[in-house]
Design a protein that fits this description.
- This protein is α/β, with parallel strands linked by helices.
- The chain has one domain: 3-Layer(aba) Sandwich (Rossmann fold), CATH 3.40.50.
- It contains 8 helices and 7 strands; from the N terminus they run αααβαβαβαβαβαββ.
- It has a 7-stranded mixed sheet, with helices on both faces.
- It is globular and about 45 Å long.
- It binds S-adenosyl-L-homocysteine, 3,4-dihydroxybenzoic acid and magnesium ion.
- Magnesium ion binds next to loops.
Length: 232
Amino acid sequence: MIDKIWYRTQDEKWDAVDAFISGQFLEDDAALIATLAASEAAGMPPIQVAPLQGKLLMMLGRAMNARKILEIGTLGGYSTIRLARGLGEGGRLVTLDHHAAYAEIARDNIANAELSDKVEIRVGKALDTLPKLEAEGEGPFDLVFIDADKPNTPDYFDWAVKLSRPGSLIVVDNVVREGAILAEKSENPNVKGLREFYARAAADPCVTATAFQTVGDKGHDGLAIVLVTGKP
Ligand code: SAH
Ligand code: DHB
Ligand code: MG
């Protein structure tokens, strides 16, 4: 499957540069190390954001003084912990995952990181939970991180815009996939979903967007960053 390739295309120089930058800028972090270990022990796939990208998520939240963060795709809570640490004083994070067993592990990892009072995990299919959040008057979210099943990414993006305010940031993971997104006629549902996300973000007059490619720890992939600008 084309969408699994990046685990096998590690490049020595990319890895060495990642190791160098990590050595310069990443602090030893017991809670994150424990989260990765517990996630692996629970049999989760090793698809957390790369460490340096996780730190970026924290920094974005902190720079915006985010009070409300939404995450779609919790896994073991690795990116959740990063994001929650970026919350401003009194802030809250809601994270969505349909996998109850994952949520349980994530809950422990988040407790171990002393973030339980700030984080709420909602178990269920994200497309069922998102309308509930809206009905409950949750939001607007300052920062949204979309990192769940790729075929639904376009719909998660629309929900993220709906639950945002002008000035909110929406970050979308895995938007390059070894360049698989170049395949216009791809029948791969992940590729189709990501291409449709680009099309919607490009056409949406309420946002302006960019994306960058990443190499190293997770092979060749990328992150999109979308700024909600409000109605034109
Ligand atoms: N953000 C995490 C990685 C998430 S992996 C990190 O970087 O640490 C993707 C997650 O999305 C998985 O845990 C999977 O269970 C979840 N997921 C997949 N489809 C989903 C759906 N329809 N609704 C909610 N969660 C879903
Ligand atoms: C997959 C999902 C991710 O969010 C990721 O970062 C890497 C891989 C996957 O479903 O294979
Ligand atoms: Mg991802």
